[in-house]
Amino acid sequence: MFSASDLRKGLKIETEGAPYVITDFQFTKPGKGQALYTCKLKNLLNGSTMTRTYRSNDKVGKPALSQKTLVYSYVDGDQYVFMDENYEQVLVSADVLGDDRYFLEEDLEVEILYYNAMPVEVTLPNFVEKIITKTEPGARGNTATNVLKPATVEGGYEVQVPIFVNEGDLIKIDTRTGKYSDRVSKK
Amino acid sequence: MAQASTAVPSRAGILGARCQVLSAVRSFFLTNGFVEVETPVRIKCPALELNIDAEPSGSMYLRTSPELALKRVLAEGIDRVFELGPCFRKGERGAKHNPEYTMLEWYRRDADYLDILDDMRRLLPFVFEEVTGTTRFIYAGRERDVTGTWPVVSVRDAFREHAGWDPFVSFDADRFDLDLVDKVEPHLDCTTPVIMKDYPVALAALARRRPGDPDVAERWELYIAGMELANAFSELTNPAEQRERFETCAARRKAMGKEVYPIDEAFLRDLDGLPPSGGVALGIDRLVMLITGAESIDQVRTFV
User: Fold this and answer.
1) Which of A30, A67, A154, B6 could serve as a FRET partner for B243 with CA atoms 20 to 30 Å apart?
2) What are the pLDDT digits (tens) for A63-99?
3) Least CB-CB distance to B94: which of A27, A33, A51?
4) CATH 2.40.50.140 fits A127-183, yes or no
5) pTM of the predicted model, to two decimals?
6) Residue of chain B with shortest Cα separation from A29
7) Burial call B10-48: b when 16+ CB within 10 Å, e when fewer
8) Where are the domains of chain A?
9) B224 touches B290 (CB < 8 A)
10) Do A32 and B176 touch (CB under 8 A)?
């Protein structure tokens, strides 16, 4: 069990029979009242959200989560297929992956989080490298990093990049934010 | 008509507004015959309250409020007194809480909580005008005004309407706190300030019972934009009843495994000579948040 003082943004808890991640956390203390912890919760199985308030002496359930390293293999419809070290296949649906599905490439190592036997979260390496397949050319000699333009990378993901980045360039994307990080090499 | 003030986003703007708030507050009280005092920040006997924990400082404590000291000043015969200064509460940290914060408190002899409410109704428009040139402001995306009629709702009516129970029929402190935050406070976010008043006695350790209605403590809370800004009492001036409440609170704190502070005997002695009095505590940081549009207390303090 967690105690209320363990609660923080990002913590995974179990309540009312389901696993949740805390997406927002607020300390509140009504005048003369006790300390309260108001949490916005997202269900790890179906994405639904709710708000729950805990008192400082409340206990909060710890979900039975396990984590495993797997390797991405291929996509089959809206199921993404990963392999474990024994070449057992694990299927993860597109809605669990969200935008991360654009960053997958064959043999990419990921961490998969299971609740009971069900994959509920996939964590990619912090950075992936992708080639720009489409973007408008920027003005020659413009090295400004604070002016952005849209670009599409291999796999179809759209990202804002600095003006100086061109088609064919290899860029680094931060998978935690989905944003451009830097340019690895020019075409 | 002047435009509603909009958020001042820059750090210089916020610190400048903060300094003007302090100056306007002082000017208001000085022109209304109040005496500004500085009472000790390190004290031996923090007020015994169930849910307020003091930070130790050597063999003493940092004050959680100047309340007891200011009532002693009134007891000396000074009619109107105020203090602006730091207070400390252990473990309170959030978007609207910092363990060290700045409190404004004022107290008046021969007054009750409604007289203090009249002071508040004059103070806030004055401070907003002085700092921003208008009483209108935008907070959390909504235009608001500190003038006009402030709705007053009783705790009993607010809980009956929004939480579906009457805390005066069977009081449950846990349920009260949870329902206050989840069900009642969201309805106190209006375009004007809102007053919630008349609390169960268990929730007002230092407030007087209403004459003829002993279950009700004469306490109000001021909410602006749903944020609790100030807490006022008709002060409890009966030393025997005050001692009994401190002792009950001490026993409950002990049972909860919390530190128990010594009873402030000098305060109880002085309380004997105090006429009916009223007083209030207002969080200066939160007032600066409202005036500048800041979302977090961290933005309005010089450093945290």
Assistant:
1) A30
2) 999 999 999 999 999 999 999 989 999 999 998 898 8
3) A27
4) yes
5) 0.86
6) B92
7) eeeebbebbebbbebbeebbeeeebeeeebeeebebbbb
8) 2-60, 65-123, 127-183
9) yes
10) no
